[in-house]
Fold Mitochondrial carrier.
Amino acid sequence: MSTVSIIPIEEKVDVLKQKNVPVAKASKTQDYAMKFVSAALSNMAASGVSNPQDVIKVRQQLRTHLPGGQKNAFWSVGAEMARAEGVKSLMNGFTASMLREMFYSGLRLGGYEFFKDKYYAASNGALTREGITLKVLAAATAASLGSAIANPADLVKVRMQAYYPNGSPYKNTRHAFASIFREGIASSTGRGSPILAGLGALYKGVVPTIVRGVVLSASQICSYDQVKQTLKKNGVFEEGIQLHMTASLFAGLFCSITSNPVDVVKVRSMTDKTKQFHGVVHCIRTILVNEGPLAFYKGFGMCWGRLGTHTIVSFLAFERLRKLFGMDPM
């Protein structure tokens, strides 16, 4: 007859500590990693659903006629694209979009709670978890990192979604990356490294990209977190799909209002092959003088439609994946 020895959990932890095994740290690191994976997958799914809206939004934002001009409504642009370029054109930039979301949203949403924990610990209680300051700091840091790393994929996505009278110069995503890299080398003055010049071309528009990422994430993630927290605290909803849906609806509206102007500048900068703009400030001034302040809200209807859809799908999927992987709700 065999005997089974039962070792208390405290003794097991002591043994692991003696062997320098970071028990809590390992589980916490795994938790952050799973949040990154969940965020990347949920946002890739959301981006796939909203890709047609994203293409139409980019086309609207690139049109430079005066405010009030005709044929810039999203249905007109969409119908024109389907008629002239085929329905498949509404999925332009899909692969680049998936690549972008993997790094950009994996970091900005998946890293949000990582930075919240780090800032909270560093503040020694000066920043409260319920306060908006901690949330904005965490969202801004995660978004800055994600935007900077994913800029080349973002640039390729926008270039592939833009309109070209003589047909797209890009055969596929890989060809687009290579073409833009070669453009940078060709436009270099001969001073400095050609490799750096090529990489510089892939990082065109990185400043407005980071600004947009910070503005969008601070308004989207923080508003979702804040609205969800408020609704739960006041007993309006319990944790579940109704709460997630309501919070994501508010978040989609807030981030659309705040990010559309920056998005217009980002798209114009990224597609500026002729070097019409001499920097972000010059781009803003040119749009303002030539097209008026409302130009910064070109494509807003489709931006809201796209970001609203993206926000709802991404947060619902993110919360579901967290539950599937055994993590607490956001």
Summary: Residues 7-13, 65-70 have pLDDT under 50 and may be disordered. The longest helix spans residues 23-62. Residues 23-62+70-164+206-324 form a domain with the Mitochondrial carrier fold fold (CATH 1.50.40.10). The two ends are 49 Å apart (CA to CA).
